[in-house]
Amino acid sequence: MALNVITADNLNFKYEESTEGIYDVSFNVEEGSVVLLTGNSGSGKSTLLKCLNGLIPFVTDGELSGDLLFTGDKYSELKMHKLNKSIGSVFQNPRSQFFTDNTTAEIVFPLENYGYSKAEMVKRIDELKEEFGLSELLDRDIYTLSSGERQMIALACSVSMKQKVLLFDEPSANLDYGNAMKLGKIIQKLKEEGYSIIVADHRFYYLNGIIDKVLFMDHGKLKVCDSEEEFKNGAYDTRSFDIFKLDIPFAHSEIKSEVVAKLENVSYKNILHDINLKLNKGEIAVLVGNNGAGKTTLAKAMCESIKPESGKVDIKDVPFFIMQDPDYQLFGTSVINELSLVKDDIKEIKECLDYLGLLPYRHKHPFALSGGQKQRLQIAMAMLCDRDVIIFDEPTSGLDIYSMKSVSEEILKLKEKAGILVISHDYEFIRHIADRIVYLEDGKIAEDFYLDENTLSKLNHIFIKMQEDRCNEKNQD
Amino acid sequence: MKALKINPIVIILINIIAPTMYIFISGRYLQIYLVSFATCLLVLMGRFKRILALWIVYALMFFGYYFSINVEGLKFVGLFLIVLVQAVPCLALASILITKYNSAQLLSSLETLHVPRILVVAVTITLKYIPTFKREFGYILESMRLRGIKFTWKRPIKSFQYFIVPQLFRCAALAEEVTAAGLVKGIDAPVKRTSFYEEKVTALDISILTVFAVGLIGGFIWR
Question: Which residue among A128, A265, B51, B222 is the one 20 to 30 A from A37 at the CA level?
Fold first, then answer.
């Protein structure tokens, strides 16, 4: 029988000044297995993960009880540095999971902390370079890397001391489809090499077929499924394993012929080449393409954040741009004040808050809201603004099925008054909202079509192609 | 000329020693000395743009001082500037710490000072937060433009609040995340930290510090 690397028995944790936490959690993780930890937002996934890497109770205060063992030793008797010599962590946030700003420095950082010699570090870097194909990524500024490249560095760091247990916190949240599938292949390879892996994520299509156990968190309680099949048959309302088999009605509706934004032969540096795009009122156009294809640059050109080197952007007013990270976009002192900066009409503001379920929070400071509430506040701003074009940048990264569906409904409502451009990697979400697909490849529009039953195969083909492109990259390394 | 590689510890030491010398040495001597010294050091490091910036900022602040010191009611601005200008050469050198060396190099060289690990980590994070601050500030400005919120001098406090509040919240979140990132990578391991970059103190570093010390001794004699 395989050794249990992690055993939890009746584990409880309650945050200070809050009723949230995890209750009666019991499970074990066998050596060399892949465990999916899933559940909706706020169900306690991150809390459990923090217990497993020792940040609870070391950094986060609260009441912890029950038993948690790592290869038979009690967590409470293990120091943080001892634990993390055996457990590697990959966090969600692409920016702040790094302690330094240089890729090589980051990989050797744990080795330095644990007093490895220079010769050992050089040897380990060579090994990691070989294993993860890092030759092009060493000694680079971390901030200049793409999200997929950053993920590779985070992964290399987490195994730099040959840790045999890996914890991933929402690794797919900031990855495009191709990179997520690539990550799935890497996890499979690590599993074959004997690593024990715990992945906490809402989306898990990239782990299809390689999961040994599923831990499903529901309001702080845990349900354990001992196989992938058992979880699949359990009819939990979650994101899908096989996204291409989804049966969702098409959003495509009648488009008004009023053009709200027009890009004519737009080129910018080596990023955009000869882009021609017309956006109509009443339509939702989804911009798809791998990271680095130029999607954000195209949106920036529409917002006049950058000036195209050639070509013309014809747009009446600056579009309303909804950023992926709401923290950069909130300036008000309360929810009502935030919206009054957009439109000073208290009646309309209240109606809008009521529609989005934010009315009870109207006097709260925007930064005191949860992530999902902040996003709804952004949508409220978009609803109130009188602009013809609204742009969303990855609105569903890190959202569970419920939040994703409600964001979809809200965006569908927005199209009544504006033309909407959405940048997204999220296939399920795209299927819910898209009237039209614009596929950007290497800075050029490779495909531009309305999505219906006849063109669905085209969309699927694009996603498969994006995955192949990423996997071929790896072979070249 | 090939740019010289100087151990960051030299710059850190100069930045610690130079400001404290204002207590002992004539301010005018020290100012002239520090500007000349910083200029020479930046030439050796091949940072010519930085020299230009140093001189322009220095000249502008002095111009501001001479202009305002003679105007009744603006004297306080002049006095304020003359205090600030003293920090300019040190800041020019300190900025090199942020742009030229990565966090790991700074950590390693600070460790050679044998100060507690917690202080080393705090100083490194603070220094490296400056470029992050700049980047985040850029995002916030761009976001204000897209939201149509303009900075206006008519309501300076309100406008200032737009810049600062999001930045403070980001800062708090980043602090927590960076702490977690450090901890899961063994920053608390009670072993002697090694260094991949091994910033050894070279003869060049010693010579620079010697020249710096001689200049300061000159200040005592000059008085």
Answer: A128
